[in-house]
Amino acid sequence: MLTDLKIRGLKPKNKDYPTADSNGLAIYTTPKGVKKWRYRYRFNRKASMISLGKYPAVSLSEARKQRDIYQKALFDGINPKAYKDNLRKTQQNKITFRQAFDKWFDIHKGEFAERTAMKQIRAFELHIFPHIGNKLVVDLKPVDMLNVFRKIDSHGKSETLKKVKGWCSRVFRDCVVLEIINNDPTRDLPSDSFKKRESKHYATVTSPSDIKDLLNTISKYEDTGTYEVHHALNLGAYLLLRPSELTGLLWEEIDFKNKIIRIGKNRMKSSRAHLVPMSIQVLAKFEEIKEHGLSEKFVFPSSINRNASINSESLRVALRRLGISKEKFTPHGFRSMGTTRLYEMGYREDVVERTLAHSERNKVKSAYNHAQYIEERTEMMQAWSDYLDNLKKPS
Fold it and tell me: Out of 1.10.150.130, 2.20.28.10, 3.10.20.320, 3.30.420.40, which CATH number does the structure's domain 97-193 have?
């Protein structure tokens, strides 16, 4: 079967040649190096072929999804070519952007964590659908998309703009594959049409003395705040998880026997499962919390509703109540705090980045690193816990 690495490595020859994937899907490389998807099938004993678009505009996963659609039509006794022609004729002048988005999302929703998907849908409902949701896809031009995107940009929402623009492009490329439109109207929008995106930095502390003060200040929350938020804040420094990953921890994710936390992909920003080795200190703390029996499901249940967990806002409010300003530290700051110190402690970049669950662009390398670094990460997380404990000791 094909992989993106294999496709990129295909070299031109004197004439078009196919490289098979599976179930009739193949990619054809032309003498000029253009790569085109084709789906070959037999209907009524007659061989036929359908074009699915060019790579990389149509990705490997998108080509496979289109092939699966046509295979289903074939199994239902319908000629895929006739199915495609009929789909184009019936939809070409009728489908709105909102309808195209809904169809695209229905196919691809499994690729995203639930909270990520809901956040993006909300962004579309606020910034996209009110302007172009009811417009026909065939009528949308680059200038229409530019005007919509500039409205978002004018409000300083660069991160929202980046994600919404990417999703719009995927919806349009899906329409290109179905031959509803010929081109993605967002494709040629120049990047300098929008404000330069500023890097987002979370307030944090990195010097040993500042970290010591922070940890000792957080320990005081036990006297004024709730048990759940107190322990979540304390463990935030040790686990280096994103705030939502930390506050939403489930007991089923805590593997006491193997001393590891296994967070499911539906709760991760990268939509990939994440493993977190537990130090002796962290394991003991979870055992202590478990004995309290606050919730059978959540490690840090809400004191108001035991069927829900605390949230990131709970951590932020707790820090402010302790007198820690937003300019000095945020709940997300534990991660950059840990990154800085772990690098200075001599740990390799790949090991640290994997611990933070930062995405690896190369998926093959990602899977390899996931297994390769677990022993090093286990050693590192124990050393990190020891380091924090030593900082908290009276001078």
Answer: 1.10.150.130
| Helices 374-392, 363-372: inter-axial angle, 10-degree rounding | 60
In sequence order, what DSSP letters do the residues of 212-265 get, joined into one string? HHHHHHHHTHHHHS-HHHHHHHHHHHHH---HHHHHT-BGGGEETTTTEEEE-G
The two tokens of residue 172 are: 């349009």
Token readout for 371 is 């297994």
Q: With residue 47 as reference, give the H or E element that holds it.
A: strand 46-55
* The model's pTM: 0.54
pLDDT digits (tens, 9 = 90+) for 307-351: 889 998 999 999 999 999 989 999 999 999 999 999 888 888 888
What tokens does 386 get? 């020891």
The CATH H-level superfamily of 208-392 is: Intergrase catalytic core (1.10.443.10)
In tens, the pLDDT along 230-277 reads 999 999 999 999 999 999 999 999 999 999 999 988 888 766 788 999
Residues whose CB is less than 8 angstroms from the CB of residue 293 and which lie 6 or more positions away in sequence, other chains included? none
Q: Which parts of 155-207 fold into alpha helices (H)?
A: 158-177
CA 193 to chain centre: 26
CATH architecture, domain defined by 4-91: 2-Layer Sandwich (3.30)
Task: Judge whether 294 and 251 are in contact, CB under 8 Å.
Answer: no
Residue pLDDT, tens place only, 145-172:
999 998 888 887 887 888 898 899 989 9
